[in-house]
Amino acid sequence: MLLDFRYALRVLMKSPGFTGSAILAIALGIGINSAVFSAVNAVLLRPLPFREPHRLALVGEKIIPSWKDFISLTPADYLDIRDRTHSFEQLGAYISGNYTLTGWGEPRRLNGARITANMLPILGVAAREGRVFLAAEDRPGNDVAILTDRGWKDLFNAAPNLLGKKITIDGEIRTVVGIMPPTFEFPENDTKLLLPMAYTQTEIAARGERYDTTVLGRLQPGQTIAQATAEIDSIIRSLVDRYPPSMREQLDLHARASSYSEDRVHEVRPALLFLLGAVGLVLLIGCVNVANLLLAKAAARQREIAIRAALGAGRMRIIRQLLIESLTLSLAGGALGLLFSIWFTRMLIAMNASAIHGFEKAAIDATVFFYTLGLSVVTGIVFGLAPAIHQIHLDLNTGLKETGRGVSHRSRMLPLLGVGEVALSAMLLIGAGLLLRSFAALAGSDPVPRPERLLTFGISLPEAKYPTQGGILTFYQGLVTRLESLPGVESASASTSMPLIGYWPVLFAPESRAPDSGQPAQGLNAAVLPGYFRTVGIALKKGRLLRDSDTAENSTIVINEKMAGRYWPGEDVVGKRLKWGHPKYPGPWLTIVGVVADTKQARMDRDIQPAMYMPLAELSPKMMGTFGRALTIQVRTKVPAASVAGDVRRTVASVDSELPVVELRSMDSVIAASFAPRRFNLVLIGVFASFAVLLAAIGLYGVMSYSVVRQTREIGIRMALGAPSAKVLREVIARGMLLVVAGLAIGAAAAIGLRQFVSKMIYGVSATDLVVFIAAPAFLAAIGLLACYIPARRAAVIDPLIALRSE
């Protein structure tokens, strides 16, 4: 084996141009693959930094079967399941939220969570400094807090001796009892603060009103997700009788357990696997090109191989030697590719920004190293098989002749490789085309008009300072009035949600009408100040907008066109009434006073849902405390939005200097953030597809050029006998285009076969979109025609006398 390796090195060093080209092609393909794999490894494969993460499971529930997703539980449902389950060692809960830190420089808004005292033991993590929460601290009135490593560094500049110090969170003084290790990121990557859950009796009693408790548990040893789901589903269905009587008739409760590890990555998994598949196709095309080079080089070595066979070398011995040569090339390319991957990884992280969470942790570690090593070996075998298989059929007598060419076998192998290159490129180009069409469909649906003139930011009022419904409402009304008085401001408003910034789902009952599905009617709800529609730019379609005089006494709402069309098709909905929950629910009937245009509610790639807008003043005291404290403020400007940002901050500080302004940005920025993941995928797939088309064109050109060289004598004879140049040109192009058409047909068929997977990556366009399936192959066919024309043109101008003397 060592002698074979030394001989392979001597052979490759004799052709430095060929060797350098092959190693560079392999290195680029492997480098890109290793870089993308490093991201896949960081996001999808690397185990979570918790004890036995495969035993961690989330618990979710549905209250009606038609809901697509399972949601968080109510506190009461969580406590009942916790006390009755046998599938889990322990069940804990958390509620993510936003909090305000004061007393350490400027007021800071931070992401945090309330967690039960057993949550950190369930995860199997301990504090780096200090301690975790005690069971006795799961009660109202406690005053302790834990910081994550990020919170300790970002909020307190990694201040030493912080344990035991007092900090002010939402106006309440708390003692820091622990700091978590750097690897701890829970519940979110940017969580900075943990507080005890401390359920109040009011929260526990509010069954059916607050689905905000995320439940996480550790399965018993040997217990499966399916077994846990069966048990907790049985438990939750038995709890219907504990719900208020007015809700029981519409409830159909179900629960399930799901892997926590899978839940963390399920949204980004398709995108990352799509990217990994795309770079895999690029590497395959590169392998085909190197195989073409090796086949062409094999022609010059036929006499050498024939002599070795004549001296007694068996076929397997010769094949082994050729595979070692290809493995030497691929390992050299893999080593260079590993260096390239470091640069590619940094480039991908810079391009990604915040498109995919966890992407920034991509690194070339031991896992990526062994992946690259394995990929190099597999790559060497893949592109070395073609010349090795060819040598099995070597004609010994022909090979010993100086002019032996062995045309027949090469002519069968090279066209197949050309077809394969075109097919792989067609798949990748069609995928890029579908992403481009999807991106264009999203870009054409602006959620609001004039987004460049709209500023948004968040405000959250601490309960300790704003305990009452009236105090919350008075604050926001006063702030909006002061913002509208600023120079350059056209209007201002506040709401619990706005386009692309979450609404909350509700069940409702249209008066004297049952939904056609037999399921309770459902929609999204937002509470707004009356100037919301004018400020955001949502057009009125029928009736009127909300007014300052709309209060809890007259109970008015405005709905969107989607809701009107779904639940009152063909009817004039102005004046119709609906009630939250079941018709027997004790709440008031809400009168529809207007219909407004549809807007995107969650993300640009999500379908528009039925939605209703109620005056902020109509929220009950309980709902105001739950939804009304943290509002999004909108400011419509007459001048570029950025020019009034400073005045906005100063105005908020003049109303309450302890309130931080959070995420002050234009609507353009909000839209761009929603586009970020798809833009990232589109750019990368576009680059990979372009690279693939270039490689395919080079490969096809090489196949046709080699074919022309091998047939130089034949072409010369035909032209000497009177064959016109135009006919030779047409025939050579026709042979090449036959390969292109065959490759396009195979590639298009393969793309159709993958439509189920591709459909997860696109929006607003079919996975078999006719425009893409015509345009992409047509573009590739044009590139193929050019790649065939240049060798064909060379063949058409061959001098017959020179051709006849060529051998």
What report would you give on this structure?
- The chain has 807 residues and is an alpha+beta fold.
- The chain has a 6-stranded mixed β-barrel with strand order 2-3-8-5-7-6. The protein has a 6-stranded mixed β-barrel with strand order 13-14-19-16-18-17.
- The protein is elongated and about 100 Å long.
- Helix 10 runs parallel beside helix 21.
- The longest helix is centred in the last third of the chain and has 44 residues, at 667-710.
- A hairpin with a 5-residue loop joins strand 2 (88-102) and strand 3 (108-115).
- The chain is 50% helix and 16% strand.
Topology at a glance:
Layout: H1 2-13, H2 16-45, E1 56-62, H3 75-84, E2 88-102, E3 108-115, H4 119-123, E4 129-130, E5 144-147, H5 149-156, E6 166-169, E7 172-179, E8 193-196, H6 201-205, E9 214-219, H7 225-237, H8 245-248, E10 254-259, H9 260-265, H10 269-300, H11 302-310, H12 315-352, H13 366-392, H14 396-400, H15 407-443, E11 454-460, H16 469-484, E12 489-495, E13 504-510, E14 521-528, H17 532-536, E15 540-543, E16 556-560, H18 561-567, E17 577-580, E18 590-596, E19 611-615, H19 621-627, E20 630-637, H20 645-655, E21 662-666, H21 667-710, H22 712-720, H23 725-753, H24 755-758, H25 770-796, H26 800-804
Parallel strand pairs: 3-8, 5-7, 14-19, 16-18
Antiparallel strand pairs: 1-9, 1-10, 2-3, 2-6, 2-9, 4-7, 5-8, 6-7, 11-20, 11-21, 12-20, 13-14, 13-17, 15-18, 16-19, 17-18
Helix pairs in contact: 1-12, 2-10, 2-12, 2-13, 10-13, 10-15, 10-21, 12-13, 15-21, 15-23, 15-25, 16-20, 21-25, 23-25
